[in-house]
Every structure is written in C-alpha cells, then in structure tokens.
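Limitations
The structure tokens in this dataset are predictions for the assembled complex, not deposited experimental models. Users should treat interface geometry with appropriate caution, especially where small molecules or nucleic acid strands are included. An illustrative entry is reproduced here so readers can see what is and is not provided.
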Amino acid sequence: MKSLAKLPLYIVALILLIVSGYPFVYMISTALKTQSDFFENPFALFTSFNLENFLNVFQMGLSRYFLNSVIVTVVAVGAVVIIGALASYPLSRMNFRFNRVLFLLFISGMMLPIHATLIPIFKLSESMGVYDTLLALIGPYIAFSLPISIFILTQFMREIPKSLEEAAKIDGCSHLGIFRHVIMPMVKPALMAVIIYNAIHLWNEFVFALVLISSPESMTLPLGLQAFRGDFAVNVPGLMAALTLASLPILVVYLFSQEKVVKGLTGGAVKG
Amino acid sequence: MQQADSSLAAVKEDARNKAKKRKLKNALTIGLFVSPALLVYALYVIYPILATLNYSFYDWNGSSVGTYIGLQNYVQLFNDSIFWTALLNNTWITLTSVFVQIPLGLIMALMLFAPIKGIRLMSSVYFFPFLMSTVAIGLLWIYMFDPINGSINQLINLFGFENVAWLSGENTALIAVLFVIVWQFAPFYMILFRAAIVGIPEELYEAADMDGANPWHKFTRITFPLLMPTIVSSSILAIVGSLKAFDIFYVMTGGGPNHATELMGTYMFKQAFVNFNMGYASAIAFVMFFIALIVVIIIQVLDFYRQKRGVFSE
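Predicted assembly:
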C-alpha cells in the first residue's frame, strides 16, 4: 500500500531522469558507432564500441581547440582570481568615498548584455593587433568575469572579523601583508567558487570567440565544434565523438566533486 | 611661553601632516588594490558601451570613416519589423523562463526530497544539462530534432504522429529551441530551490504534522511562501538571462527560418559581422543595453519598496 502510494513519485523521477539523461546516452552511444552502423539503426543504443571516431576528431584539430581552451581558461581564471580578490579587499573592508559607487559599477556588469560591447571590443582587438589570437580573448574574459567574482568575494570578505585584521596591524603588517596572510586564507572556499564558476563559463564561452577569432589555429572548443559541424554534416557519429570529448572534462570534474561544482556554479545566487 | 605655544602648534601641525600623509597613503593603497580590476573593466566594459552609443549615430561599415546621421539608425530600427519580431522572441524566452523553467526547477527540487530509492544518483544526472556548453547542447539537439533520424520524431511516431521538420518550420522552430533552453537551465533553478528548501526549519513541518496538515497543505502554507524570495530572485536571473540569449539560437537556427527565431542578439550579430552595418548594429546593441538597464532599475525600485514595506510592517 505504502509503496503503491509512492508510484507516482517514481514515475516523475524516472521521466526526469530519461529527459535529462537520454541525450547524453544517445551522444555517447552514437559516438561509438561507425557511420554505416548509424545509418542502419540510428536509435539502437550501444550496439557497437568503435573508438575510431575519437581518434579521427583528435586528428582533425580537436586537440588544438582543446589546448587553446585550456590556455585561455587557465590564464583568464588565474588573472581574474588575483585582480578580483585585490579589488574586493578594499571594497569590502575599507571606508572610502567612492566605495559604494565602485562596487555597484563592478557588479552591475552581471546584468550587462555582452552584445553592447562587441563592436568596440572587436575594433579594439584590431587596433591592438591581437585580433584572431588567444590574447584577444583574455582581456574580455577577465573583464566579464570580474563582476561575479567581486560579488562572491566581497560577500565572504565582509564576514571576516575585524579583530583579526587589527591584530595583524598591531604586529606591523601592511595592507598587502594583511591581504595575503589574513584575508586570502580566510576566503579559500570563495576562491574555489570563483575558480569553478569562471572556469566552466569560460570553457563554454562562445560569443567573444565567434567575434574575435577566425582561423582554426586560434579557435577554442565551442567555436571549433561549431566549425566541425560543416565538416561533419553527414558524419553524425564523428560529430557526437567531438561533442563527447568536449563535454568530458567538466562532467568528470563534476562527478568527482559534485557539491563543490554545484556550489561554485550557483555561488552568486546561493549563500553558504 | 611663546616658545611652548609655537612648539604646540608645531606638534599640531605635525599631527595634521601625519594624518594627511596617512590619508594619502590609504588612498594610494586603495588605488593600488582596485586599479588593476578597474583598468581592465574600464577598457573592456565601460569604454565599449560608450563607444557603442557613439557608433550608433553613424552610418558605418566598420572600416572606412562613418557618416554622422544622428538618430536615423534608431528611426530605422523602430520601423524594422524584424527587430520587433526579435524583441517579441526575447519576450517569449523571458515568459518561458519564468513560467515554465522556474516551476519545473521547483518540481525537480521537491523531487530531490522525495522518499524514493536512488534519488541521489538520479539528481546527479538531472544536473548534467547545465554543465554542457551551449554550443555542444545546440549541436546535439539539432540531431535530436532531425526530421528523419531524430529521436524526437521517433518518440512522437510511437504515439501515432507524423514526422515534423522541427527546426525548419516557422511555427515549430521557436518551440523546439525554447524546449532546449528549459532542458538546459531547469537544473540551475533546481539547485537554487534545493538550497532554499534545506534552509526551511524542520520545526515548522513538525508543528504542521501535529495540527494534522496533509502534504498539500504543508506545501501551500509552509514551503511555497518561504520559497517566495527564491522565486523572486530566480525570476530576476531568468529575465536578465533572457535578454542575453544568443548561443543556442545562433547554433540551432541562426535566427531562421525566415527570422522566425530571430533575437535581438542574433540580429545585432548579423548586422554587424555579416552585413557590416556596424552603425545600425550598434543601435540594436545599445537598445539591448538600455532595456537591460530599465529592467535593472525597475527591479531595484520594486526591491526598495518591498524593503520599505518590510520595515513598516515589522
């Protein structure tokens, strides 16, 4: 009787499972098929285990896109963590005249449609001579990651007790010393959230890459995948292999540290 | 005596100088901490917005010198039926986000607390769609919606329906893409609601149990009212996010067929980087910025009044 009452719950849970999970199963299963397998029976799941597609897409340039994405993400996230934390320290813990205005200026960037900046940034990259290089992406990536980073970091920094800072001051610590030895160790969980949030978003970023990059040597993964689409118009298993490889890093990280990823991704919206 | 006075003055003067120095040093410190971020932000966010506004007054192809034409781009924009279609489609995304995505996210979050086996494992899968890049999602779903080999048509065949050319039909393309958006973002709201539900004190439910409340009453009288702040903040995120929509539409339909799924974002992109109407595209971009600004101001004002009311009622 009791388990019968739970039946509707099981049905809803199962439907949600199928709707969220099936596309991934389909993607991986198709990636493992040969083209003729796919045309014979496009819907049968896991009928063949053929790894050739993965090798092929790697040879067709996916490894280059991969490397580019890693470089851009690591450099931009590293930079945004440092300069974001530096800016968050006075914004959260010092009184000065333009504090509130500066803070609002930074965090209002979260609401900004990127399109409002595209043309000038495109022109800027040309006049700086970085158009179509990874350098063109790094500047905008840092700038557009700052708002959420400062938002998360200032929230955490505000909660550090003033006494800690004063004790360090009496010991003759400079502001930079306090920042390095008191503040930074205290906000480690927030730094983690900032790193995860920005890394995932930048790994997946598309608009700036689309506008600022044109040659395959400089393409990041999302842009490369989009370019693959033309090459693979008829080779669905090949495209699915590329999609699988591109999604793998984040899914693996997620499976190993679910709570951290979830907290990081929703860091701006969920406190604690 | 006079000597003492002057030395006192000297001490005061000295103290004042020191205070001034300290203040200056403080300002310098703050400047050093904030300036790297401010510099990058000014260069890639603030300057571009002002430049976009400036470009929007020109007829300009992006390379040669533009011609100043005043507000003509804006006049053209308001008479451009494609722009109004785009604005309407952006509105559809907003409505879908608020009235489909958020309720679905809430249902998913409630399911996470359902007393059934394996829900922990299932919830990990529920979150998957939010982790995948939008481009990858778009490409994957193009094949799911494929008229011949797509899984969606396979599914509706089971129920006796004919194949549908989802993405190339003017009436179905928008629905198909909106479905994918819901699929991608519902898990995000699920997590927001999960965090809020965890925060509801257990005692409230215990008290309700003692009063003999049924699960529906517990939901409508306790859970739902206490989730209201999360519903509001989720709606804000959804509205602001809808204005920025671009990737999934660009990949899945490119704004087509025949502009049926055009967004402000895709239209701006095409005008700027396909047709090289940079002045006109800047006008579209600035309107996008302006709409976002208005939305933010409305939210701030509403929030201000809500807080003021809160102060009076307490």
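Some entries come with short summary sentences. For this one: Residues 1-50 of chain A form one domain.
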